[in-house]
Amino acid sequence: MILRVIHAELYKAVRKKRVYVLASLMWLLVPLLSLLIAWVVNVNVSGTFVDDGVTLTDLLQVIASPAGISRNLLLLSGNLAPSFLIIVVGLLAALFIGDEKSQNMWKTILTVAPNRFAVLTGKLLAAMILLGVILWGGFLSGMLFGSIGMIFLPTTFGSGWGQLAQLYALEWAFSTSAMLFAFWLIWLFRNVALGVVGVFFLPNLLEGLYSIYAAVVGFDRVNRFNLWLEALQLQNTLRELPQYFFTTNLYAPSRFPITEIVGVIGGDVADIGGPFSNFFDISLSQAAVVMSVYGAIFALLLAIGFWRSDVQ
Amino acid sequence: MPAIAAANLSKRYRRKVAVDAVSFEIAHGEIVGFLGPNGAGKTTTLRMLAGLIRPSQGHASILDVRTPGKTLAQVGTMIEEPSFYPYLSGFANLKHAALLHGGVEDSRIHEILGFVSMDNAADKKVAAYSQGMRQRLGLARALLWEPKVLLLDEPTNGLDPVGIAEIRENLIKIAEQGVTILISSHILAELEKLVDRALVIERGKLLFDGSLHKLTERVGDAVVHYHLEATEPTHLVQVLAELGYEHTSTNEQTIRVGIPRNDMATFLKTLAAKGVSVLEASREKDSLEAAYLRLLKEDGRPS
């Protein structure tokens, strides 16, 4: 039954233009821009040094080698605001669970396939398969466009493909929690637009509110809220909260290549401030545990909402 | 074993009772009409039968299995206005449903599209379909896996007379194959041509369960109309006027007269005593609509 749902959902999804637009953004836009930038840089500063100890070839290798483009695609997918990854997740969730609401299709789906567990699981798996195709398509398109770039740029194929493939796999696996979150939010709001906007901004909003409170008020100042936290012995937990933030952990694999890039251009991640500071302490294994917990919570909330609700 | 059964089926939304202890059984191969004004509880009952909403009390069964259960795979449904993915073609929408259900070949999709006369529009996107085309595609989807039971909610809603006639003919063909059909409709005249038995629901309660004949008999008008032909129509008119019966001439030979129900024998004897020879007397069929409206009025619904 689950396989039938996956088959039907993928049949539907591949006939939706949105999927091709998202895939094109990932597979074509960034690789082509990377090659264009690299070509312009190569033509204009050929033979000169960019910075102390960093050659033009090193820089081009980071921007436009096959490994460079694939790595940059992963990096960009998780490090924009809102990230490309969460946009893809939100729009895929809208396609797989929001369309049924907006087109009034639940009454049809759930009479044709009355096993709600199979329907929900099938839809989630179909969405994850499509997300995987888009992500892994980026990996392969980086390899392809980078190889084309090798014809007119002084780049090599690059190394570290095994580790990069692992990071892609991890990012895809971590996205399961994000997909569950998006499914739950769209189901909860019963409104596709509101659900998608919530997926894009709600985690950032909550995390932003925390940051504002931590920066402006802090957890040491005596106020009613802090006293309450102290009474519950939650102050330390709250101080350490950022390392359990949803977005912090979700994008851990896509943040990982920053270390390598910074290393190539002669810097240190410890010097990076702003939104990246403190995030590099979070290991991938810790992020995996945190995302698993988020995934379990969202799956439970979704199941509670979906299982017993009436279809009007 | 009934094909469709409702046992004490109830649905409450906070304080509002949408369906109140409705019970009925529909045998295999029966076509039953589900009548009731807007908001009476027809769609809610159909949704409970289809497993879409959970009863607050009681239960529904399809092919002897409580819904939602595995026998729903043998049910075709069209509840309220049929909905589709507008960006998919008619064929692709049916293909999606076929993949979800399983066991339906493409040849069956083409066959059923032909059955509802939609084969020429199969490749057009549903967004471009008219209301009538959507209704027919909805019926096609309900029939895709050759269901044993059909639950149809206002299948002719929004259709023109030609479309209504087409759907009716299709349903008659389906019924001939032994499919059990529960069909709700506002258009009583259409239902009258299709079903033998009716369930009447009002304010969530089942008011009537029986044959259409029984419905018109039970709550028919107090006066029954007859068409009389006599050897001397002018004399007949004079006698009717003299006796105080309401009458009209439908043509030179035939007089339409209203007679209190069950008084026909006395009436004919009186005419004979007055020297009127009646050649033929035919009873006008009781109007289902009139009977239905009277039934609702009996329940206290304002006319």
Task: Describe what you observe in this structure.
- The complex is a heterodimer of chains A (312) and B (303).
- Chain A is mainly α and 312 residues long.
- Helices cover 75% and strands 2% of the residues of chain A.
- A two-stranded antiparallel sheet of chain A has the order 1-2.
- In chain A, strand 1 and strand 2 (54-55) form a beta hairpin.
- The mean pLDDT of chain A is 84.
- Helices cover 35% and strands 28% of the residues of chain B.
- Chain B contains 10 helices and 14 strands.
- Chain B has helices at 42-49, 90-101, 106-115, 131-143, 161-176, 188-194, 212-218, 233-243, 264-273, 288-298, and strands spanning 4-13, 16-26, 31-35, 57-62, 65-66, 75-78, 149-153, 180-184, 197-202, 205-211, 223-230, 247-249, 254-260, 278-283.
- In chain B, a hairpin with a 2-residue loop joins strand 9 and strand 10.
- In chain B, helix 3 (106-115) crosses helix 4.
- The longest helix of chain B has 16 residues, at 161-176.
- The model of chain B has no long low-confidence stretch (mean pLDDT 85).
- The A-B interface holds A 1, 4-5, 7-8, 11-12, 15-17, 99, 103-114, 308, 310-312 and B 47, 50-54, 67-69, 72-73, 75, 77, 79-88, 92, 95-97, 99-102, 141.
